[in-house]
Amino acid sequence: MNPRRPPALLVSVHGGAAVLAAVCLAVTLRDGLVERPAAVAFGALIVLGELARWTGARVREPAPLGAAGALSYALLGENADRPTTHGVAQVVSVVLAAVLLGAVPHIARGRGPTADQLARRVLTVGFAAVCFQPLYNQGVFDGWSGPAHVLLLLGLLALTALCDAVLAAALARSRTGWPFAPLLRDELRAMPGVGSAVVATGVVMALAVAVAGLWALPVLSLPLLLTQLSLRRYAAVRTTYRQTIASLARATEIAGYTPVGHAHRVAALSVAVGRDLGLSGPELTVLEHAALMHDIGQLSLVDPVPGGATACLPAAEQRRIALLGGAVVRQTGVDAAVAVVVERQADPYREQPLAARIVRAVNAYEEKAQGAGPGGPLTALEELRLGTAGDYAPDVVEALGRALARDCLTLPVTG
Length: 415
What we know:
single chain; about 425 residues; two-stranded antiparallel sheet; 16 helices; 2 strands; disordered C terminus
């Protein structure tokens, strides 16, 4: 993509997080740390969580233990039955310092937290601390004990998690231009998983430290750390699964049936179109895998299609190759939904599921645009638009045009 000015929302969020962090650090340096043992204990917990963060995995919360410790410190009102006196500034300062310290090894390997992740951590922890610490120190929650106090903490953390989801979706919208609603939906769908464990652990830590003191932290952090290790293994299995699909997709390239990189280009552009049309995370996964394997049926052909360009073949031959491809996909053990998309990519678009419509249009665009010279992308998109009367879904073609325009190609976007 061409260099361009960062969106105003990104500048505002990053600037707001930077200002909050600077003010809190200045206040903490001026007043000094209070209750140092608690600050050091929670800081060490957050450092441990950051050291164990996931790197290279597409997960909503890469450091759940660090997030739970940060939120617990923000909602800490008592330590071994003694009221705490640390405020919002110290909470943000300790969390920020611990996150940066724990991220040093990852930064050295080029896998440190992004600016968006740091801004979200500062703002969400600051939000939780602002909602709790001033009111607690003023005695507003003195009458909240037992189940009422638990519900209070759960409510505050649930509200914090919701704000974080909105913030994450808004930042992704600013960076990518994808629709906000599907991004927010994916964030909310991810919350009951690791997000619920983070919230629950944060509440339990705050309550346990209030009764048993700081010794409760290592005991309560162990289950979440073990869960994180288990989820890391699951993520590794998913990564291996995707690598297997990518290797299968390359089979047609190695055999000389399709151009090198064709399947990966179709998959990347199909996902961009799917996001534009509002597909959810699981639907995008099926779409990506189907796009990677959309040409695998050509392996069953005796004579290769010239250039692997199936879009120019008669409709009956396209359907035959698609059905052959679906049969191959089913034999590999890949999700049956992927096989359905591969099988139906050559059907009339009005009878296709949306994922199959996307793969068909993007594959045709890729085949028409490659090797057609500087004007190839424009010509290919116009051909697809002319074919919306019978061959390609109009909404998919227009979403394709918008996806290409977001990549700073000189293409007209209508609709």
